Each structure stands twice: as structure tokens, then as C-alpha cells.
Amino acid sequence: MLLTGIRPRSKIRAIEATVESVSAARSYRTERSLGWVDIHTHLLPGIDDGPREMAASLDIARRAAVDGTEIMVATPHQRDVMLGSSVQHVRNLVSELNGRLRAEEEPHRSVVRIVIGMENHIEPGLPDWVEDGRALPISDTRFILSEPPFSSYPDYVDDVLTRLQDLRLVPVIAHPERNAVLQRDAKKVRRMVEDGMLVQLTAGSLLGDFGRAAERAAEQFVRDGTAHFIASDTHRPVDARTPELSDAYQRVVELTDEQRAFELFDENPRMLLAGREPNHDLGRAFERGAFDSERKWWKVWARGA
After folding, report:
1. Burial of 149 by CB count in 10 Å (0-12 exposed, 13-18 middle, 19+ buried)?
2. How confident is the prediction for the chain on average, in pLDDT?
3. CATH at 40
4. Which residues have CB under 8 Å from 121's CB, separation 6+?
5. How many domains does the chain divide into?
6. In this model, does residue 13 exceed pLDDT 50?
7. Would you say residue 281 lies in a domain?
């Protein structure tokens, strides 16, 4: 929030309003949920460009729990698993990590639960790899995390996504705000949603970690209803790409309000893990101040409310 040029008394009021908004978000979240659900993480050791050792994996999970995350989906890069590991090894690591975390659990110290998934690069062979079990959806549901290239949008991408849908899968497009082509063509991302796909943003994009273009695109997708999930895409416990979500949650509250943040970090990803699809309501526009905790949520988002 920019406070330049505001008189001192107005500055104080603006700061107080910001503090009140963040406090309200925390209170709202506490009332509605046990913790966030992070559907895109690289926390399994020795698989891809995530942590190399189990100690770092445990550190990521601990930090996520302290920050407020309840469930993390382990989504190693599918190609790294296929070429250098195996699906069974991934399952074994998830089981081992959960076992170690449960051993640390105490009455006043919660731990995250890890479920299996993959980040699947969108390439021509992906539908075949799904059919033979070398590419996995999220937690054995029909939702498949699908990553477009970063600097281009090849002609085959749309065909692969259609083939995944022909297999009765629902592509969850991973961080489209970080794709150079989609940053300039938000309507294409919107058409994906209209065609039945879902959209996951990276928390760091909303904080400027991937540049201003990614930040602007992420803000637009949050506001216009295109985004369904926000996830950490964590790769390490410290420095860049860490598992904390709280700063991005507060940023969504600033951009829109508490209900929209709750949807993106909690309600929608829980629906996904339960095999249920979030609503595709692109008619909603999320603007700051639309939420009123005294009103029912289904009235809050009605047009003209």
C-alpha cells in the first residue's frame, strides 16, 4: 500500500485499516478451517530440483506447518521421475516423510500431511504416460497438474490438454502467470477455464518474486475469477521458493477480501482432494471490500451485492 502524500493522520488511519484487514483475515480463516492446502510442492528429496536430503524435506514440512499449512501435495517433476526414479519410489518417499512427521506430532504441535501428485510437463507424450501409469494426477483424483513451458506456447499444448480431457481428466494449469505468452494473453487462460480447466497460481508471483509481468498477471487472475488455487511451488526451506503462504494470503485479502483468499488457499484445494470440482464462475468480479462477514457468502458474490 502506497502512503506517499497522505497527511499524517490519514496515514495512521490507513495503517490501522491494513492491520484490521489482516487481523480479520486471520480470524476468518481460524473460524473456517484448520489450515491451508498446498497443491504444488517439490519437497521430496533427491527426485528433481527440490531438496537433496530428507532433512531439508522435513524442514520444509515443519516450516509449512508453522505458517499454517495442513496438507501438502508432493508434486515432483514427472519427467525427472520417469527418467531417473520411479512412481513406486515417490510413493515410498511420501510414506516415509509422513511417518517421520507423525513421529514429531504433539498435542500443541501440528504436522502437515503429505499426499502424492506430480507436476506434469505438457508435452506430446503426456496422455500416453498417464495411461501407462508414468504420469500421475493429484492424490489419485481426476485432476492433473499440467505445466506449460515458461517462454513459449507450442502448438501441441492445446492438443495435449484436449487429449487429457478425453481421458476424463481435468487439467490444472500450473502457474500460467509465469508463462511469457500467457502473461500477454490473459484471454487465452480465461478460455482454458471456459473449456473446463482449472488454474493454479504461484504464491511468490503475487509478491513479485518472478517479476512484475508475472505479478500483474497473477493479480488479474485473482481479481477476475480465473484462478482457482494458490500454491507455494516450494523447492527449499529457506531463501527463495519457500513453503510459506501467509504473505500471499494477505496479499489476496488486500486485492479482494477474506472469502476470496479462503477459496484459493483452502476451500477449492480441499474440494479438489475430495474429487470435487470448484465452480467455474467467471461472471464474478472480486474487488476489495466486497466481503462482509455479517452476510452469507452466497450473497456476497452475487452480482450487484
Report:
1. middle
2. 86
3. 3.20.20.140
4. 77, 78, 79, 147, 149
5. 1
6. no
7. yes
Percent of the chain with pLDDT over 90: 77
**Any domain includes 13:** no
Lowest mean per-residue pLDDT among 14-28, 55-69, 117-131, 184-198 = 14-28
**38 C-beta neighbours (distance < 10 Å), count:** 28
264 backbone dihedrals φ, ψ, rounded to 5°: -70, -35
Q: Could you give the CA distance from residue 228 to residue 278 in angstroms, rounded to a whole number?
A: 7
Range of the domain at 27: 19-300
Residue 62: band (very low, low, confident or very high) from pLDDT cuts 50, 70, 90: very high
Contact 63, 237 (CB under 8 A): yes
Of 22-31, 145-154, 232-241, the least confident: 22-31
What is the Cα–Cα distance from 273 to 269, expressed in whole angstroms?
6
**How many residues make up the chain in this entry?**
305
pLDDT at position 305: 31
Q: Which of 273, 247, 251 is nearest to 260 (CA)?
A: 251
Residue 110 lies in a domain: yes
Tell me the C-alpha distance between 283 and 138, whole Å: 27
The answer to whether residue 276 is domain-embedded is yes
d(CA 120, CA 155): 17
**In sequence order, what are the beta bridge partners of 117?**
none
Helix (H) or strand (E) holding 69: strand 69-74
Instruction: Tell me how crowded residue 170 is: count the other CB atoms within 10 A of its CB.
Output: 18
Q: How confident is the model at residue 256 (pLDDT cuts 50, 70, 90)?
A: very high
pTM for the full predicted model: 0.84
Tell which phi-psi region holds residue 86, choosing left (phi > 0), alpha (psi between -120 and 50) or beta: beta
Cell of residue 228, nine digits: 482457482
Contact 174, 205 (CB under 8 A): no
Confidence band of 280 (pLDDT split at 50, 70, 90) = low
